[in-house]
Task: structure prediction
Amino acid sequence: MLVASCDLVGVDCNWVDLLMAGRREAPAVRADLRQGLPPPDQPAPDNPVFFAHRGFPKAIAGLCIADYAYAMRIQFCGADRTVTGSCHLIEVNGLRLLLDMGMYQGPREEARRLNFWLPNGVKKVDAMILSHGHLDHCGKIPVLTRAGYDGPIYCTPATAAVARIVLEDAAEIQEEDAIYLNRRGRAPGEEPVRPLYVKSDIPRVLKQMRRVGYEQPVDLGRGVAFTLFDAGHILGSAYVMIDWKQNGTGHTRTLLFTADVGRYNAPIIRDPRTLPRKADYVITESTYGGRSHTPMSEVGPALLESVRYCIERRSRLLVPAFAVGRTQTILWYMQRFIQEGLIKPIPIYVDSPMGVEVSRVHSEFRDYYDDETRDAIGKNDLFGMSRVTFASSTDESKRINSDHGPCVIIASSPTCEFGRILHHLKVSIERPNDLMVMVGWTPPHTLGRRLQDGQKRVRIYDRWYDVKCQVQTIHGLSAHADGAELVKFLTPTITPDASFYVVHGELAEANALASRLRDAGAVRVDVPVMDTEILRE
Result:
């Protein structure tokens, strides 16, 4: 434990370092998520602050909380020094609020440990706020409700619709994976694999959802309210601003949770809404905190070049992507290429059981589109749906592999750790003319990242393959803002008085964004470790 001058009785805490996740009930985490703690001689923040791990002696923690009567507490419960598994627990004015409950995506065993883990006392949480319907933000909600949480889950109407599809699909995958893994021989005494949840758990989650429109404040009681604003990431995505009046002082404080911030000038949905006011505390994503994306004006030409490559060679273009968000972006570009005569029509497959449903959801929530897309409604088939073959059944998925090209195949998942993309990859991976295009961030230690990093021999299911196909990454197709775009988004609240907590990024990216924020004028910037806590006045 690293403690610099700290008068616990008077709560004049100059600095108490972040402590690594290490209590017995906390899940084992990657070593790199534990590294990079600030040195003990790091300058102390100006305002009182208390960092502690959940294993910190309760007597001391209790003393701090008692003396720090007007404290706001943040517990970082996921997507800390990594990208997936977003989850944070906020306590203010006696209310306990969860921000997201996402599934961690990574190596199978590590993912199972982290995804079964929940912060203490989830039954007593007063409300949950869901930023959007991607699996790494909503995928653990059924784990939460199975553990006894029965409170409201606030989100936009579009997020509720998207999350239903994503959770039902995830449950089906969990069940199928458990059946497949349990068919293998198990060591004596080895417990059978059990799914995180099953499809019958999803209706309970849906009943607890409370739909809230953008920019409509919700009063949670005890002087606490929150508002959702358009984050421009995927359909229905939101960033969250929580406002409260401190007990005893009447001072108003604001916490901003960015969740995932989208790119500017991206197709289909609106740009991120400009921050309406400054925040005292900011929990910000950093997926691409140290990187610069291809300008949006160059994304289309880069994708067009990839498509033409496969047309010329009569080969297959594989795009590992979830059915929500980037799939629609790829379809939008393909439709535009064909309509403008840049390519001839070729078969396009969306190999996803939820592909049809996701497309229906997009047609239902047209108010979320940007002006250009809304103006085109009724004039064009925006996503070229009449040309797209959706594979819902296993047999339909298998038939796709009889098409050797030219064609485009979009299938889950981007990690290439599970999902139907694996069956198509087995066919294409040793074909030199086939091309796989990665369209966003891929977690470390996954098949997708190994291919992205240029590994020449990989394992798919139970067989090893030589990588002969071409692998390309178009980061500009990501639905995440890059480092400069994040600073642009956060600029209205970058002040010396604001406290920034950089999450949802690998350590290098999080540190890079932290440096960018300091360069832009922020003073209090930290990169927390999973399952650490912060108390602030």
Q: What stands out?
A: The chain is about 30% helix and 20% strand. Residues 15 and 280 are 19 Å apart (CA to CA). Residues 1-70 have pLDDT under 50 and may be disordered.
